[in-house]
Amino acid sequence: MSTAHTLNLDSLQQQVLLPGTKGLALKSALQQQDIPKQNWNVLNADTSFPVAVLKQTALQHNLAWMKQFCTRMQVVLAPHGKTTMSPQLFDMQLQNGAWGITLATVNQTLIAHRFGVKRVLLANQLISRSDTQAVLALMQADPSFEFFALTDSLDGVERIATQVQQSGITRRLPLLVELGFAGGRTGCRSQADALAVARAIHQSPYLQLAGIEGYEGLLVGKHRDQDLLAVRAFINDLVALTQQADAEGLFGGEHILLSAGGSAYFDLVGRGFETKLQLSRPVTAILRSGCYITHDHGFYHHLLHEMQARESTVDEDNLRPALEVWSMVQSRPEPDLAILTMGKRDASYDIDLPFPVQTHRPGKTSASIDLPAGCKIEKMNDQHAYLRLPKDSAICETLQVGDLVACGISHPCTTFDKWPLILVVDDEYQVQSAINTFF
Amino acid sequence: MSTAHTLNLDSLQQQVLLPGTKGLALKSALQQQDIPKQNWNVLNADTSFPVAVLKQTALQHNLAWMKQFCTRMQVVLAPHGKTTMSPQLFDMQLQNGAWGITLATVNQTLIAHRFGVKRVLLANQLISRSDTQAVLALMQADPSFEFFALTDSLDGVERIATQVQQSGITRRLPLLVELGFAGGRTGCRSQADALAVARAIHQSPYLQLAGIEGYEGLLVGKHRDQDLLAVRAFINDLVALTQQADAEGLFGGEHILLSAGGSAYFDLVGRGFETKLQLSRPVTAILRSGCYITHDHGFYHHLLHEMQARESTVDEDNLRPALEVWSMVQSRPEPDLAILTMGKRDASYDIDLPFPVQTHRPGKTSASIDLPAGCKIEKMNDQHAYLRLPKDSAICETLQVGDLVACGISHPCTTFDKWPLILVVDDEYQVQSAINTFF
After folding, report:
1. How confident is the model at residue B201 (pLDDT cuts 50, 70, 90)?
2. How far apart are the first and last CA of chain B?
């Protein structure tokens, strides 16, 4: 990874980590930049347990993979920063060609800007007066800061126009109209409604119509065939809306932004946006996948396998899971049960419980052992996990108190927000550095 | 609330909050101690949204209520600090007579000690060498720091004895034997096993048998009658084990610690521990409820209602829900659907989704409106909640984009860990101060 940073990460390197920092076993204060000198190895149990780790090789692979994917599809990436909220990871994403960072809230935007992010797509609307004032003040104070937000109603346009007017800011606020679908989340429910919103933005002296946006990632149902039809139809609708708004001359930026794409169907979005749009100005097609950077062992793992089956450019060597949570066996109270030192405070539980992958008896020389099929985290309390072992299997005999257990996770977003600091490790689990998160 | 603090909270008051601090809408840096001067009111939408608030009156009520409960039951309280991990709340608990703070991990212990907590009951075992070394170093460095941990196996006793020996610490490490039950979590599965562990502790020159511990709070099943029988039987087992260990002269402290009690059945624990134990030395009966301090609108609300039915001292004016998450209506895309600016990043979803309680159109003069029955958060994404409104109800007409929605939560532990800073409000939702959490 390059050492020339795009963002200002010095304050993070210089910060002092105190005893109690989750994931570390500190006896005294330590500057973050001194972590690499500690010679910590997870397999040697030098950290605290639980500990969350990012596998550097997988991370680098995923960054390069997505860069190549976007180049091939002729789209740009504004990765959703809410996944990680990590300045160091934002930096890696920007160094790998990201167009900007997508965020979900004004406070996330303020944090990203603090570390030097200069282009933010807020994949949400500006609603609250105080939040809106905070971000408009930032735009006023930093003319180089580009900020885009969504809107999905005429009311919303009026509210935001009033707030921009009251702020006294001299540049127009660029907005994307959000198209949704029946039964979905936010977003106009029809092309007609969306066009009306686009016209209202165009007519306001305080606003600028920057583009069209949608989010197809919610179309994950029980019947994937139907999901895929719905996703393709929705992307076509986004394209059609963009053409219509352009035909009416509503867009106000140098480029027309056209954005969709979570981590489930970004291939379909890429393919859908490939349509050679004959518009009045250049189109910037923006994917927003956030989870690709670490991928996972569950939800996105399955979705990517499906993507591989339908998209020839997604080859065997696709995204790799980079995020693991390691804990220790705390108790072996019953022959087929191990209680681990991790729980809801440490790993995602919103889509799947963590996936136990391997075990390791602390010591650099002992070998890690893949856990056999049938090993399963069957429950988590706040600070405990219940690892059920296959009855009468060899692992029932061998797994001891003090053994390490590595778990993969499903849905990175809800693991990242449990770790203010995550260790970056090499292929031998030697600790190389740390990244910070801001939730 | 008294202003004389037991803990060292000055560093928190003096810390500088930067723009981006979740819950606040800051345009510039602000010292935490200046929050009361800002004249912020949640009902006036002066904060960011979502925002988590603690209702001061309910908090004070709960602190006083539990203090009185413990006095009546002749038990002491070591509230589980993992619930809140908040030094300011620990301070309030200690000022209200708490015997110490219960914690779940060594890192939580190090954080509590940093702010001046001098007595910690670790409701878990010391397993990892590096974590154990960190806490033993603390005991060595601060002779006034009292620390107790659990163990549930002969292996565990041997491991910890070796670690204490290697640390060179001169005082014995006080341990409680954990009794469990079949199908439960940690803890010896029989009195015989527990006694064997107690004897091993007694025999070690590095350890001291400080007491007996169990956790009945997991016995929440589908048939409460059976749960209650199991809880009572388990508490009897704890008492019997304590008597047996004392008869063998295994305890080594001045007092014998006898501890159980989560937030579900602390009345039964209190009653069960009332047995006038004729032992060789005084018994300190310790409850560990953590959630009482904020209570909730769901899980514990229901359990307390049951408690009220069976325990005459739990009167009508019992624990009150103190923790709410306020968000804003971001979109009204369909007649009976409102999308709120909060999600899995902001409120508990592990037991129940949040409970929408009331709505308020920003402005101090408008009145809050209780949401009608049938209003329900039916889903949350990372940063969005789906508030379903009863079809064709009046609220479908009146609820607008920009309206505030207050939600109660179920299971405080998994809301606290989403908020590094929580605002404390008076009965009019005027912001009085803030507390910090350390996860």
Report:
1. very high
2. 25
Name which of A120, A117, A208, A114 is nearest A160 in CA terms. Answer: A208
Domain co-membership, B186 together with B323: no
ipTM summary value: 0.96
Question: What are the C-alpha distances in Å from B433 to residues B30, B32, B41, B88, B111?
Answer: 13, 8, 12, 11, 21
| Number of domains, chain A | 2
Same domain? B164 vs B277: yes
Among A233-237, B157-161, B296-300, B420-424, the least confident range: B296-300
Let me know whether B179 and B207 are in one domain: yes
Nearest beta carbon to residue B128 from set A45, A137, A218: A45
Put simply, whether A413 touches B (Cβ < 8 Å) is: yes
For residue A49, what is the nearest residue in chain B, using CA coordinates?
Answer: B128
By the CB < 8 Å criterion, does B167 face chain A? no
pLDDT digits (tens, 9 = 90+) for B221-248: 889 999 999 999 999 999 999 999 999 9
Residue range A225-240, pLDDT digits in tens = 999 999 999 999 999 9
- Beta carbons within 10 angstroms of residue B114's beta carbon: 17
Q: How far apart are CA B376 and CA B298, in angstroms?
A: 13
Q: Pick A402's closest partner by Cβ from B159, B180, B185.
A: B159
Residue A189 forms contact with B (CB below 8 Å): yes
Specify whether the CB–CB gap between B138 and B145 falls below 8 A.
yes
Chain B positions touching A332 (Cβ under 8 A) are 153
Chain A and chain B share a number of CB contacts under 8 A equal to 223
Question: Which residue segment(s) compose the domain that B21 sits in?
Answer: 10-55+319-436
Whether A4 is covered by a domain: the verdict is no
Please tell me if residue A353 touches chain B, with a CB cutoff of 8 Å: no
Residues B333 and B252 in one domain: no
Whether residue A341 and residue B180 make contact (CB cut-off 8 A), yes or no, is no
B327 shares its domain with B367: yes
**Residues in chain B within 8 Å Cβ distance of A24:** 107
Q: State pTM to two decimals.
A: 0.97
DSSP string for residues in B363-374: STTSPPEEPPTT
Sort out which chain B residues have CB atoms less than 8 A from A333's CB and list them. 152, 180, 184-189
Residue B2 within a domain = no
